[in-house]
Amino acid sequence: MAAEIRFAKTHEWIRPEAGGLATVGVSAYAVEALTDLVFMQLPTVGRKLKAGESFGEIESVKAVSDLYAPVSGEVVEVNAALPNALETLGKDPYESGWIIRIRPDDPAEIEALLDRSAYDAMIGSQPH
Amino acid sequence: MVDFAGWRMPVQYASIVDEHMATRTAVGIFDVSHMGRLSVTGSGSQAWLETMLSRRVADMEPGRVRYTLIASGPTDSVQGISILDDALVARDADAMDGTPRMALVVNASNRPRVVEWLRSRLPATGVDLIDTTAETAMIAVQGPRAIELVTGLAAADAPRISGLKNYRSAPATVAGRSVMVSRTGYTGEDGVELVVEAAEAESLWETLHEAGGPLGLRACGLGARDTLRLEAGMPLYGHELVEDSDPFAIGLGLAIDLDGRSFPGAAAFSGHRVGTAGRIRVGIVFDTRRSARQGDVVRLDDRDVGFVTSGSYVPTIGAAVAMALVDRDVSQPGTMLDVKVRDSLQPGRVVQLPLYRRTPAARQPVPG
Q: In this structure, what DSSP letter does residue B30 have?
């Protein structure tokens, strides 16, 4: 099933969409761990990303974190409304809280990421 | 939870923003037991502290509290001076035998070296220095409803607490427990700090927490403590204030009493007062929520003009702010500067400190 959501170890999620695109966001776990989000910087449309490359930053009152591309690809759309409505990330991180859409260079890279149960197992073993 | 100078402490209980705003609008309670508490007693205690602290101590009456610096080094040389800490010094009620009882509250991270330095300078007789940090606890109750909360638990001692002026302290019974109440804090709000026997601390905390619920109380962690003091323009040791700071340049001249006094640092600080060359502590307000952090370089055109000492998004202002040390010629309020935040220059405007001042309407009895 190609439309299954996958996760990077750095807490971004990616979900294949129609037309060879994929949507990227950050996990509910990451949003909760960051708390008090105040700022987000988005990439420009058209930027080419390599897997693992920082494509933006997300900042809480206490700290700033990079957002990492889960796979390589080109940014085709950004959720421009999100930086002014960061509470959306807490309420709906997997739908209206999406961050960017990309055209992955190689859809197989997505399949190689963690599926939900593997991701849940990973965060379950992390210290709180 | 994080490790903070050996203490396990919460950055937040739930949300830094909620805790911050509760303290600004209602009341926040802070477990500040990590702060070092030192007892200095004996017939010579007050006179000895007069020779050790930057602030005048000799004229302190019982119930007075003052903000001071503690420096190590010679009294008569500008060389070899190291500011070890900033602290509160208090004179409590005299002992039964009529001798003074003094107390110091120092930063957790500096406590070991402050104790070591002070012990090394103790006179042979007449002064006892005891580190009481472990056997006591300290709870800060801060916010416009702080006094209402504490007096509501103080029965007959309520008038004594509500009548305390700023930087005054008094013993009182709160929630049935003997506490030292001090009209001090680190938030820019009215409030008190309570010192209590460690064994009583948990139940006192629970009682405050329960009684404060209807008032809008939140338990507050280190994160809100930092954003509150940043808005209030209060220095934090290791950020605005360091070992070789010029106290006058960073706006701490009020912590230095020089006239006719001799104490470690006196000669060096005296030189600062007449011709300070140090960078000036200012506030910077940004038009974004993206925060500058400690160490970020402040630029004007092509030159480095200073560096950020503390920076964060702060909830009351609703923007990123910073405190910074900058060259005197760019320290005027209104000056536009750039701060290098990660890989980009971010414009900010110099403003006078504090960034936040509580409204007079929220103020309790006027300080005297």
A: E
